[in-house]
Amino acid sequence: MAANINAITVAVSDLERSLQFYRDGLGFSSPGIIGTEFIRDDQHPGGSVAMFTLDNGLILSLYARADLAMDAGIAPERVVGSPMSLGLFLDSREDVDLILHRAEQAGGTIVRPPLTRPWGIYAGYFADPDDHLWEAVYFLGSTPG
Fold first, then answer.
1. SS3 string of the chain?
2. β-bridge mates for residue 90, sequence order
3. Considering the entire predicted model, what is its pTM?
4. Separation between Cα atoms, residue 54 and residue 81, nearest integer Å
5. Which residue, 133, 7, 126, 16, is CA-closest to 64?
6. pLDDT per residue over 59-96, tens digit each?
7. Sign of the Cα pseudo-torsion (78, 81, 82, 88, in order)
8. Neighbours of 19 (CB within 10 A)
9. Edge-to-edge strand order for the sheet containing 49-53?
10. For the chain, how far is it from start to end, CA to CA, in angstroms?
11. Is the Cα torsion angle 9, 14, 17, 20 positive or negative in sign?
């Protein structure tokens, strides 16, 4: 079995707002919200989702919090906040600064401004409008691998 993560689904409170944050703010490419014909009812979650296929093939999906909880069969309070961070590996310090600026301009929050860490990275953190934590990273001198 190959050890790959193919998709990450992020629970959001407002699908349209989150689509605008990631597509219009951060510049991730998406066809928009799809699956709107599948309406949530008492038995089934809704199907509305925004998907972004990233350059490395990973799919980032945005799914309404209530629908994700229902689909997974868990309580809605289990799909809030950010008990982890997602990482963006960027090509320069300037790219780190730019993505943090774009995130803030699009309605995100700068959690920690970028700085050089002793282990050879320049990185900062931001949170999206639903408080999902992202780290923007530039590797000084070499890339991970």
1. CCCCCCEEEEEECCHHHHHHHHHHHCCCCCCCEECCCCCCCCCCCCCCEEEEECCCCCEEEEEEHHHHHHHHCCCHHHHCCCCCEEEEEECCHHHHHHHHHHHHHCCCEEEEEEEEECCCEEEEEEECCCCCEEEEEEECCCCCC
2. 138
3. 0.89
4. 23
5. 16
6. 999 999 999 999 999 998 888 877 789 999 999 999 99
7. positive
8. 21
9. 7-12, 59-64, 49-53, 33-34
10. 20
11. positive
- Classify each residue of 105-137 as buried b or exposed e, where b means 16 or more C-beta atoms within 10 Å of its C-beta: ebebeebeebeeeeeebbbbbbbbbbebbbbbb
Q: How far apart are CA 30 and CA 49, in angstroms?
A: 11
Neighbours of 53 (CB within 10 A): 14
Instruction: Give the integer Cα–Cα distance in Å for 100 and 40.
Output: 35
* CA-only gyration radius of the chain, Å: 16
Which residues are paired to 87 by β-bridges? 135
